[in-house]
Amino acid sequence: MAFVSQISQFTLSAVTPKTQFTPRASVFAPNSVKIGAKRVKKTRIWTGELVRERPSFRVRAGSEEELGPEKEEGPAVAVAEVEEEVKTVEPSEIDRLKKALVTSFYGTNRGLSATSETRAEIIELITQLEAKNPTPAPTEALTLLNGKWILTYTSFAGLFPLLSRGTLPLVTVEEISQIIDSENFTVQNIVQFAGPLATTSISTSAKFEVRSPKRVQIKFEEGIIGTPQLTDSIVIPENVDFLGQKVDLTPFKGLINSVQDTASSVAKTISRQPPLKFSFSNSNAESWLLTTYLDEELRISRGDGGSVFVLIKEGSSLLTA
């Protein structure tokens, strides 16, 4: 944005070269004084082969924008003004669609609680993004697939029983993620649970093979139930609301402190146990996945039965949108 000065400025500059004296008489021409942005000519006095220059004075009136930058010959210093323009970068159509898609996930619990109207809106946005896919051959851009992806929405009914556990008052599904290692062609799916006394996770490990520019075949190898990590401290509020009434929990603090001590000792014992591993039967060991949209922060995939998965790269600003 250019700023224009409203204050008139007067600049007085002088160029005083060395003067050589001569005994011969000279005829002086009058100095030339001009007002404006034009350069002022210097007065020269010719006396044979010797030249004497008298100081040249210049008066300039007006704003800097009107007069503009000025160049001087010889020892004079050039005056210039550099103006920087601040340009606003407009978001692209893809950025607007991604923002709208992530916003539409609000309150859906990764798709479990989405209404039919919300599902229709989400599918419409997904279809528009798929039509603008900047990576038409995702399996040929495996470096983009690398890393940890957070599941933000799915229509896969097989995950709904798992997500419904998050509706229980004492158990929440903290995160569902997928880690892809394109160098070793492995995929790891992780579900993290949290409760009032412990946190744990269930994960599956699989290998994948590239079958087409968009499709990969996945073969699950094993599942792992992580060792529960019990919390060694319980924060008890002063009171809680129950059926519209505030219940004072102060009398229960002694009992809760004893439970906390017991939980701490149990946590140390359980944490030493190895995680539980299990294998998959052959009938459920394979699946396929079609990546229909992929960029540096968003991935859309479709699986068996037309189910859709929307995942966001860990660290992306879309996760906090």
Automatic annotation (TrEMBL):
Record bears the keyword Transit peptide: yes
UniProtKB keywords: Plastid, Transit peptide
Residue ranges of domain Plastid lipid-associated protein/fibrillin conserved in the record: 96-311
GO cellular component terms attached to this protein's record: plastid
Main location: plastid
Top-rank taxon, per record: Eukaryota
Compartment(s) of residence: Plastid
Xref: InterPro entries: PAP, PAP/fibrillin_dom
PANTHER family: PLASTID-LIPID-ASSOCIATED PROTEIN 4, CHLOROPLASTIC-RELATED (PTHR31906)
Family the UniProt entry places it in: Belongs to the PAP/fibrillin family.
Name of the protein in question: Plastid lipid-associated protein/fibrillin conserved domain-containing protein
